[in-house]
Amino acid sequence: MRPVKESIARIGSVALFQLSILRALGPALARPRLIVNQVYNCGARSLVIIMLCGLFVGMVLGLQGYQLLARFGSESALGVAATLGLLKELGPVVTALLFAGRAGTALTSEIGLMRATDQLTAMQMMAVDPIRHVVAPRFIGGVIAMPLLVAVFNIVGIFGSQLVGVTILGVDQGTFWSQMQNAVELKDVNEGIVKSVAFGVICSLLAVFEGYHTEPTAEGVGLSTTRTVVASSVMTLLVDYMLTAAFLNY
Fold it and tell me: Which residues contact residue 216 at a Cβ distance below 8 angstroms, ignoring those fewer than 6 apart?
């Protein structure tokens, strides 16, 4: 029973921490320069890995999708299959996992190091709220950066599937794009946007929470970073299932 009680207590701590961040959103938004810097740290510095992974995921999706569709004589629908797979599922999920591994760990280690070196305690002693000046801007930056990274991932992924399907496998280029435009609907795009925003909130919240509550030791920073990746990955997949089921029943 003890692990269950600890898990429930931790969920409650995260919820209370989220409320404290929500109270600090107004003052944090009044300092846009901090938010822009965090969007750059979380988003722009993750572009290389996002674009590389998006390209290769799209290329693999083109290969596997072509082989599957060829069994039914529907190779021309490769563009539809690749685009829907990226927009609704692979784009948000893979980007969130990459975000947790790159930007999430950076946020956790940065705030955790501030905790270990007593910088957060010094701010509190000077009547400066660390939630408002340190945590909230990083949380907002992560939430803003996630949908942008998902959009880049999807664009590069579609290009990768088109590169394999049209250039290598011989699918007609006009058919590839025209069927995609006719089949993809606004609700498919909206599903991906909702998932990207939800994953941005989850990954950013867990990253700043673990960093803020780090044990003030070098080992504590390492453990918090590990917990960020594990918790963000598990929660991303759990929420992805819940959102997918909700959109299917909608």
Answer: 115, 116, 118
